[in-house]
Amino acid sequence: MRRYFFDLEGQQRKQYDYCGHFFESAEYAGQFAELMALDLGIAPDSEWSGWNICVRDSRGQYLASVPVQECSV
Q1: How far apart are CA 60 and CA 26, in angstroms?
Q2: Ramachandran region of residue 38, left (φ > 0), alpha (ψ -120 to 50) or beta?
Q3: Could you tell me the sign of the dihedral formed by the alpha carbons of 8, 12, 13, 14, in that order?
Q4: pLDDT in tens, 36-59
């Protein structure tokens, strides 16, 4: 298993994931980022809308970016 990090990046600030999560592959890490984006998209006041979840491996290499979009329910 490898450790992956999920940093939140907005227009003017970032929130770094210093702990990370372990997954068997980058594909699973990407799926987790998609679930995170869906969860953040339903947050009150759409506070995360427009942010991105950037997935990086333990060496800091960029793997993917998943946008957080406001849920229109």
Answers
A1: 13
A2: alpha
A3: positive
A4: 999 999 877 778 889 999 999 999
Give the single-character DSSP code of 14.
E
Question: pTM of this prediction?
Answer: 0.89
Structure tokens belonging to residue 34: 């998609």
Strands (E) across 1-73 are located at: 2-9, 14-15, 21-23, 52-57, 62-67
Report which of 67, 70, 59 is spatially closest to residue 30, judged by C-alpha positions: 67
3-class SS of residue 65: strand
How far is it, in rounded angstroms, from Cα 41 to Cα 67?
Answer: 9
For the chain, what are the domain ranges? Answer: 2-67
